[in-house]
Amino acid sequence: MSTCFNYKEMFSLDGKTALITGGARGLGKEIATALAQMGSRIVLADVDAKLVEEAASEIASMGVKALGLRMDVTNESEVQHAIRQCEEMFGALDVVVNNAGIVDRVGIEDMSLERWNRLMSINLTGVFLVSKHSARSMITHGVSGSIINMASMSGMIVNVPMEQAAYNTSKAAVIMLTKSCAMEWAEYGIRVNAIAPGYMKTDMTGPDFEPGGVYHHLLEQIPMRRLGLPRELGGLAVWLASEASSYVTGATIPIDGGYTLP
Ligand SMILES: NC(=O)c1ccc[n+]([C@@H]2O[C@H](COP(=O)([O-])OP(=O)(O)OC[C@H]3O[C@@H](n4cnc5c(N)ncnc54)[C@H](O)[C@@H]3O)[C@@H](O)[C@H]2O)c1
Q1: pTM beyond 0.70, yes or no
Q2: CA-to-CA distance for 193 and 195, rounded, in angstroms?
Q3: Which residues, other chains included, contact 34 with Cβ-Cβ below 8 Å and sequence gap of 6+?
Q4: Tens of pLDDT along 36-51?
Q5: DSSP codes joined into one string, 100-124
Q6: Based on the number of CB atoms within 10 Å of its own CB, is 87 exposed (0-12), middle (13-18) or buried (19 or more)?
Q7: Nearest to residue 136, comparing CAs of 127, 124, 145, 149?
Q8: Cβ(196)–Cβ(149) under 8 Å?
């Protein structure tokens, strides 16, 4: 008979510190809430200084330690500074969620180089910079941490009829960066995985998918015929952040109601 593991304990994030970029609102804030409920200290880092402070206060009211920082993921010295602040406040980082991202919809022939570069610098270079300095911190402190990247189903398929080539390309690159980081940092016990959400019901996207909305007809393309709820990402984030996924690295997990199946 095998030893009886405490599976509840494996999902616990008690005593851990998690940094979530773009955590002031939307999916990042929801993931931060899930990690906080499982016991993690939370650092939210976002370009929106006011909103990130409000979000951190909300998380702190749940009874966990929380800090909101203004940080632009595209600015290397701001990233380094924020990670130093996390270390000073809470010690070594255990979990990093690279969530900050933007979408920009325009036909390729009409896309300016400036718009292309801006999207790439946030969605891809930002993930590189935050991962680089987080992994350095984890290696220095001997932490076998977990890095979770927000990719998208759009890194695997082309959404029809949306013209969002830069976004799709950036998310495909995040999936490959996830695998590359996982390979390089496996020797330190640092795991790197990605979540690939489908259409999620956020405050901003939700109304477009309601009857009469511009994207309502797209529900037909989703085998489950509905949008995902932000809270449906929380469980996956907790699993990836915790010991419960200790042998999983380099994976990209779709959470898309079956959209990428055909
Ligand atoms: N909403 C969806 O349906 C969906 C689907 C698939 C993937 N995603 C991905 O999930 C992530 C979050 O999406 P969301 O819908 O919650 O977006 P959102 O726009 O609601 O939130 C993004 C947050 O990132 C912050 N941010 C933007 N640029 C930043 C920068 N340079 N540095 C730091 N923070 C910055 C914003 O201020 C904002 O708080 C993104 O990476 C997105 O591509 C979203």
Answers
A1: yes
A2: 7
A3: 231, 233, 234, 235, 237, 238
A4: 999 999 999 999 999 9
A5: ------B-GGG--HHHHHHHHIIII
A6: middle
A7: 145
A8: no
Per-residue pLDDT of 93-126, as tens digits, reads 999 999 999 999 999 999 999 999 999 999 999 9
Only one residue has tokens 């977990």, namely: 146
Compute the C-alpha angle 121/78/186, nearest 5°.
Answer: 70
Report cis status (omega within 30 of 0) of the bond before 223.
no
Q: How many CA atoms lie within 13 A of 118 on its CB side?
A: 9
Query: 75 - beta bridge partners?
Result: none
Count of CB atoms situated within 10 Å of the CB of 226: 12
In the DSSP assignment, the letter for residue 262 is -
Cα(97) to ligand 1 centroid in Å equals 12
The correct answer on CATH 3.40.50.720 for the domain covering 10-251 is yes
Atom of ligand 1 nearest to the CA of 171: 43
* Ligand 1 atom at shortest distance from the alpha carbon of 25: 39
* Most informative mutation of 53, 115, 120, 150 for ligand 1 (most atoms within 8 A of CB): 150
Question: Where does residue 225 fall: left (phi above 0), alpha (psi -120 to 50 degrees), or beta otherwise?
Answer: left
Question: Which of 46, 149, 169 to mutate to test ligand 1, by most ligand atoms within 8 A of the CB atom?
Answer: 46
Residue 106 dihedral angles phi and psi, to the nearest 5°: -160, 145
